[in-house]
Design a protein that fits this description.
alpha/beta, 8-stranded mixed β-sheet, 38% helix, binds zinc ion
């Protein structure tokens, strides 16, 4: 099915002028969008597979700029406990994280993303070769970053063994169409400066992304102030590792000078409002970042941190938290938030030439939101409907790279029940293990 025509939709192009086309048509050949217009286009294209959008909203596929998708088996565990990371997660990860858990967790999490309209995600965890495999099989676009830490990790018994894994992993995947390998030093405080520089050199050598949690934790901020009289951003900049390939997650504890540095170095930002608020981390200055024209996208963080992997539930939080915190309801209009969820995310990941908007020549990564459900009417403003009315269950159809992956709210070509059974088996294993720790 390499010729698809989508009709009877309102197209939110998210192009430079944010054009909206009512009763629109999008034509796809192979992986690419080849034509966009009004309903008169339909008669021009014969023998195309027709998708009737039934009056729904066609938008670019959403981009999840930060996740740890394989942590889904741990979701909702000890959510409200202060010391859950040390008490539960680290011991469980030590005992349970292996190739199987990473692969099967990734399969489930990727299904969750696809069913909610995420067509590209950026991941960071261990055994990322398994995440890459799952992404490739399920047909989602992904940046997958192998975690590097200064101590033995689940997939490397030697200190800093992750770097060797990473070299092989990048070699294996760096020519893949859908999966982009990356190097992911976990955070400034879990890697010494020498290894951060080495990781950056690897990112430069292969021209692959470098993903890191930055300026997220109070103790991180304190450490760099005490040891270097610098902010975490100033410290990273002093190592010379901030550049266009750098994708920074969180950036909660940043000041105006930090933003100057990040903007100058063209660092991509993943704003993870759900995880930041649930973890009581603070409010990131995302309005300032957006207004400066920085590369800002949205991320969920891991399913333990934010309990979800979809972007639709992040969008209202972005607006509400900023409006509440700044006591100003005019901040961040919905259009800007949809921008962050789509083309903004694409910019953060340096993929804006390929994805993030509905334009001729771009890859066909598309989502249809149905407007029949009770929560979706009336519509006065399409952006506002997406941000404040929609939920993930309104996603009807998802196309990635010209392939129909979700139709009528069902994931095609795979047995989701099998994936779900697998997840529930992992849950049983985790419950047994909890009794032992
Ligand atoms: Zn994270």
């Amino acid at each position: 099915m390499d010729k698809i025509l989508i009709k009877n939709v309102t197209i939110l192009t998210m192009n430079k002028n944010k054009e909206i086309i009512e009763n629109g048509v999008v034509v796809i050949v192979g992986k690419e969008i080849i034509d966009i217009g009004d309903s008169s286009l339909e008669s021009k294209y014969k023998d195309f597979f027709i998708i009737d959008g039934n009056g729904g909203i066609l938008m670019p596929g959403m981009v999840n700029c930060h996740s740890h998708v394989s942590m889904v088996p741990f979701r909702s565990l000890a959510d409200d406990e202060a010391d859950r990371l040390k008490k539960y997660i680290f011991p469980l990860e030590k005992k349970l994280v292996d190739k199987d858990l990473v692969y099967n967790g990734a399969r489930y999490g990727i299904c969750e993303m696809l069913l909610s309209g995420v067509t590209t995600f950026c991941d960071m965890y261990y055994y990322e070769d398994e995440v890459a495999r799952a992404a490739s099989r399920l047909g989602i676009r992904a940046i997958v970053g192998e975690t590097i830490v200064d101590f033995p990790s689940p997939d490397s018994t030697e200190p800093y063994g992750g770097l060797e894994y990473c070299k092989e992993f990048i070699e294996k995947w760096h020519k893949d169409e859908l999966v982009t390998p990356a190097i992911a030093p976990h955070a400034p405080y879990t890697n010494d400066s020498e290894h951060l520089i080495e990781a950056h050199m690897l990112s430069q050598k292969y021209n692959v992304p470098l993903i890191m949690h930055v300026a997220e934790m109070d103790y991180e901020y304190k450490k760099y102030k005490e040891e270097y009289n610098m902010t975490p951003v100033e410290y990273l900049d002093s190592l010379g590792i901030l550049d266009k390939n750098f994708i920074a997650a969180h950036l909660v504890l940043v000041n105006d000078k930090d933003l100057d540095i990040l903007q100058k170095r063209e660092v991509g930002v993943s704003h993870n409002v759900g995880a930041n608020s649930k973890g009581a981390k603070g409010v990131a200055p995302v309005v300032k970042m957006y207004e400066r024209g920085m590369k800002v996208g949205l991320g969920t963080d891991g399913p333990m941190s934010g309990n979800t992997l979809d972007i639709i539930t992040q969008m209202p939080l972005v607006g509400k938290v900023q409006k509440l915190f700044n006591k100003d309801r005019t901040l961040l209009p919905s259009k800007n938030i949809v921008e962050m969820a789509t083309i903004g995310g694409a910019r953060t990941l340096n993929m804006e030439h390929l994805i993030g908007s509905i334009e001729v020549g771009k890859r066909a990564d598309l989502v249809i939101l149905e407007t029949e459900s009770v929560n979706m009417q009336p519509i006065y403003d399409y952006y506002s409907t997406i941000v404040y009315s929609a939920n993930p269950s309104n996603v009807d159809t998802v196309i990635v790279d010209g392939r129909i992956i979700v139709r009528s709210k069902k994931i095609l070509r795979i047995d989701f029940n099998d994936i779900k059974r697998n997840l529930l088996n992992m849950k049983d294993k985790i419950l047994c293990m909890i009794k032992e720790i």
